[in-house]
Amino acid sequence: MIINLRDICAVAEQNNMAIASFNVPSFEALRAAIDVAEETDHPVILSHAEGHEPLAPLDSIGPVMVALAERSSAMLCVHLDHCEHLSYMRRALEIGFTGAMYDGSFEPYEVNLENSQRAAEMCSGFDCGIECELGSMGSREAGQRDEGGTAEESGAVYTDPDQAADFIASTGTDILACSFGTVHGIYKGEPHLNFKVLTDIRDRVKIPLVMHGGSGVSDEDYKKAIDSGIRKINYYTYGVKYAGEAACAEMEAKRSKSADAIVYWHDLTSAAYSRLVEDFDHVVKVFANGAKQLA
Ligand code: 13P
């Protein structure tokens, strides 16, 4: 069943948990995310980032995401991630997306505010919740996955709690992506999350908060972030890293038996799919934060 971003985050709020938002720019990832949602009976967000257009064009994968979500027994939201162009957002809304993020974090505050207002207005004409971002993660979702590093290295600017309160009042965004130490891509060393920034934001604003750069964080930090108001966790890089490693291991296993062994494409995609299922299953259970009754 397909539900909108506001409603899926309300489920998270009621249960003091976070919803996994998986970027799914391949059939294996899309199938793994839906299968895990159905098997665990946990709500999941299926995300398509504008920056993933070269991997999976919106016009091709978008209708498939919506059709599979509609016929699934699991509670699923089909969401546009890191959208920088309102014309692209309109296309996703017309396809039937039920969540959309406008990312103006790279713009000066006034421009971000104005474009976020326009995005929220556009979504209000559809059954679609809106996410906006304040502060900056530094490294961009569309960038190379090994650009990540640390928050300082990637030029992150933490979200200002007072500005967040004004921003939410002016834009009417349903949920807010905040910067408090996570980065997109691979972490160099341990991630250092600033929970004081997060709790200060939560004290000022009452809407669900979003963690971007959510893969590669320890289970303990996920739990602390959820207990501090994080309701949606965006997850991509480490899942596809593990899937890539599984595909390589499969190839090596075949080649170790015979140097000229044929390795079929489906051998690699099957290994990647299985590894994604294993990883997604682990994270949705951690993000559930002990919640039993999920609706
Ligand atoms: P990761 O790069 O940490 O997986 O973050 C993904 C993300 O935030 C997508 O919006």
Distance between the termini: 13 Å
Question: Do you know the CATH architecture?
Answer: Alpha-Beta Barrel
Strand order of the largest sheet: 1-2-3-4-5-6-7-8
Stretches with pLDDT under 50, minimum 5 residues: none
How can the largest sheet be summarized?
8 strands, parallel, barrel
Mean pLDDT metric: 94
Q: Structural class of the secondary structure composition?
A: alpha/beta
**CATH top level label:** Alpha Beta
Secondary-structure element order, N to C: HEHEHEHEHEHEHEHEHH
Number of domains: 1
Could you describe the 3D structure shown?
- It is a single chain.
- This protein has a single domain, classed as Aldolase class I (TIM Barrel).
- Helix content is 47%, strand content 14%.
- The chain has ten helices and eight strands.
- The chain has an eight-stranded parallel beta barrel with strand order 1-2-3-4-5-6-7-8, surrounded by nine helices.
- The longest helix has 23 residues.
- The radius of gyration is 18 Å and the shape is globular.
- The model has no long low-confidence stretch (mean pLDDT 94).
What's a quick, concise take on this entry?
Zn(2+) 1 binds at residues 82, 184, 212. This protein has 295 residues and is of the alpha/beta class. It has helices spanning 5-14, 27-40, 58-71, 86-95, 109-124, 161-171, 195-204, 219-227, 237-257, 265-287; strands at residues 19-23, 44-49, 76-83, 99-102, 129-134, 175-178, 209-211, 230-235.
Keywords:
TIM Barrel; single chain; Ketose-bisphosphate aldolase class-II; 8-stranded parallel beta barrel; Class_II_FBP_aldolase; 8 strands; Aldolase_TIM; alpha/beta; metal-binding; binds 1,3-dihydroxyacetonephosphate; 295 residues
